[in-house]
Write a structure and sequence with these properties.
Layout: E1 2-6, H1 12-27, E2 30-34, H2 40-45, E3 48-56, E4 59-60, H3 62-75, E5 83-90, H4 95-107, E6 111-112, E7 117-120, H5 126-130, H6 137-155
Parallel strand pairs: 1-2, 1-3, 3-5, 5-6, 5-7
Antiparallel strand pairs: 3-4
Helix pairs in contact: 1-6
Length: 159
């Protein structure tokens, strides 16, 4: 089962995660949890992961970082080799958040099976950054495809 853990303050990452869930459910089993609801038991029950988060100030959003802080040690050495991918909703770059997720996943000894999917909203003013986001259909299709690929690859034993 694919576990999608997400956080979204302005709706962009939520849209991405929901599109990935739709793709995943078309191919296999998947579960979507907000970062505040997900815990160690959820990680242990899943066989693959998709982490979806916004980038804030060139870093992983605090709520998503809290999820990793709360779950890191309780599952350490218990997730080794499981596949994962990441999706980032960013105003411009997204690389900082992607690197933070990759470092955490390396500590958990997860196996990256897709490059981070970074969707840039180009929000650069305080008003645009804080405004609700609408992710373009083409970008949502990429999220859908990533969810489908993760679920199918897990179901078929490819990952």
């Amino acid at each position: 089962m694919l576990l999608i853990v997400h956080h979204s303050a302005t709706g962009g990452t939520r849209q991405m995660a929901e599109a990935a869930l739709e793709g995943a459910l078309a191919e296999g089993e998947a579960r979507l949890l907000h970062a505040t609801e997900a815990g160690p038991a959820d990680l242990l029950a899943a066989s693959a992961y998709l982490f979806a988060a916004p980038e804030n100030l060139a870093s992983l959003a605090g709520v998503m970082k809290d999820f990793f802080d709360r779950t890191y040690y309780p599952v350490l050495e218990r997730l080794n080799g499981r596949p994962y991918a990441a999706m980032i909703c960013a105003g411009s770059d997204g690389q900082g958040a992607a690197r933070q997720i990759a470092r955490i996943a390396t500590g958990w000894r997860l196996r990256e099976v897709a490059a981070p999917l970074i969707i840039c909203t180009r929000a650069q003013t305080p008003e645009a950054i804080l405004a609700p986001k609408t992710i373009a259909p083409a970008d949502l299709a990429r999220c859908h495809e990533l969810g489908a690929a993760l679920a199918a690859g897990t179901k078929l034993g490819i990952f």
